[in-house]
Amino acid sequence: MSDPRPNGGGPAGDDLVPQPARRRSAFVDITPLRASPAFARLWAGQAISGIGSQMTVVAVGLDVYRLTSSTLAVAGVALFALVPMIVAGLYGGMLADAFDRRRVALLAAVIAWVSTALLAVLAWTGADSVGALYTLATVNAVSATVVQTTRSAIFPRILPRELLPAAAALSGITTGVMVTVGPALAGVLVASVGFGWTYSIDVVLFVAAFLGIASLPRILPEGEVHRPGLTSLRHGFAFLRRAPNIRASFLIDIAAMTFGQPRVLFPAVGVLVLGGGPVTVGVLTAAFAIGSLLASVFSGRLGQVRWQGRAIARAVQSYGVFTALFGVVLLVAALTGGTVGQDWARVDLAGLGLASLALMGAGVSDEISAIFRSTMLQTAVPDNMRGRLQGVFTVVVTGGPRIGDLYVGALSVVAALWLPPLVGGLAIVVAAGVILRFVHSFRAYDALDPKP
Predict the structure, then answer these.
(1) Which of 416, 421, 407, 290 is CA-nearest to residue 356?
(2) How many domains does the chain have?
(3) Where are the transmembrane segments (predicted)?
(4) By 3-state DSSP, what share of the chain in percent is helix, strand and coil, each rounded to 5?
């Protein structure tokens, strides 16, 4: 792994990492794609196969609803897979720290591909059932979790350290394309050609993931190796206890995800506050995704930021402010007698526009935080611990939003729809400030000298 410190450079107090040539463009830095053909293949494979994976996620939900006519049954797809995904994140991290990461990722990808192929077979033969869909969707999600955990541990081995922020931004673009294009294609394909073709197209697109992973060299973990099991897990958590900066990044993300996830409010907001029904839900959901995508597209200078702990805290505080602003918009709409109903012709367009801008700002802030948190995890953690810490990170990003859904849902029932985002956003600002104030090493975290 190369050292980002050049021969010479700017003053020690500079907020930007001294680079041989500073980037002037705000557009995403595509240098990682040129510098590492292995990363370029992984990135392209993830982008193409990810669209298919998102198609399948949506198609499974539609398939379950077709069989049951129950939104609760559709929600059960995610709930059924939650605990297995958490276990897969932890165990997949241990596998990545014990064996050839290329082989681990390839095996998990094969399992994910087979589960998708079985979904296609069931759809074509008419043998699909709710139980089968739950089971295969869970196997698919578990395998994808292992692939993602292992892939994240691979990046620092195929890229120089100074290019990891740019790589994280490129991955953010991939995610943005996946979650916008995939679901849209799924809706069109299911409506036009049916479930069999939709699943089958994912099977074909998944080949791109195989090509990206199979072309990697052997990537064995460096340093002391622990075989998967309780001993390995204990060593991972023991390291986390001695890693205040990584621990702080996890805690600040948990705070953001717990108190800043208003997505479960969107259906009620579309009926009771802003009007527009499902169309409003789609607009609000898309606004956050567009914000995340824009942050990645215009991330060109983020790779030069030196004090990344402060950058994470400020981005999370910005996320909290925009979340609170979303709550303020709902409060004002409620007080001024916002349009009630699902008729799009009667929607509160001003309120919807302001709410969408707030969520877009939250998406921008969240993606900036994610870029720096990912970079910190990949640069400050030793290679032989990277998989396990990526596994814990997976648990955080998987479990945090679910806890957030519970908080928002419970508070909105006993109070008002505007209260959870308003109170939660302010709580995020305070929590990030407290962490920044009392975790001195996090506040002083230096990209030139990364320490866990």
Answers:
(1) 290
(2) 2
(3) 72-92, 104-125, 163-191, 197-217, 279-298, 319-337, 422-439
(4) 75, 0, 20
Residue 269 lies in a domain: yes
Say yes or no: 314 and 380 in one domain.
yes
Q: What is the pLDDT of residues 175-217, one digit of tens each?
A: 888 877 887 788 888 888 889 999 999 999 988 888 889 888 8
Residue 260, number of CB atoms within 10 A of its CB? 28
Q: Are residues 301 and 439 in the same domain?
A: yes
**Residues 97 and 200 occupy one common structural domain:** yes
Give tens-digit pLDDT for 100-113. 999 999 999 999 99
Rounded to whole angstroms, what are the CA distances from 261 to 255, 359, 368, 406, 434?
A: 10, 10, 17, 10, 20
Q: Which residues of 378-394 are buried (b: 16+ CB within 10 A; e: fewer)?
A: bbbbebbbbbbbbbbbb
Distance in angstroms (rounded) separating the CA atoms of residues 355 and 271: 15
213 close to 105: Cβ distance less than 8 angstroms: yes
Residue 278 and residue 186 share a domain: no
Query: Vertex 300, ends 295 and 304: CA angle to 5°?
Result: 115
Summarize pLDDT for 44-85 with one digit per residue, the tens. Answer: 988 898 888 888 888 888 888 888 877 667 767 777 887 888
Matching residue, tokens 């998967």: 228
Bridge partners of residue 305, in order along the sequence: 16
Residue 23 has pLDDT above 60, yes or no: no
Amino acid at 338: G
Q: What is the pLDDT of residue 7?
A: 35
Same domain, 174 and 304: no
Q: Which CATH number goes with the domain that contains 137? A: 1.20.1250.20
Q: From CA 157, how far away is CA 384, in angstroms rounded?
A: 12
- Domain assignment of residue 25, yes or no: no
Q: Can you give the pLDDT at residue 63?
A: 86
Domain of residue 429, residue span:
240-452
Do 76 and 208 have their domain in common? yes
2 located within any domain? no
Q: What pLDDT digit, counting tens, does each position of 238-264 carry?
A: 888 899 999 999 999 989 988 988 877
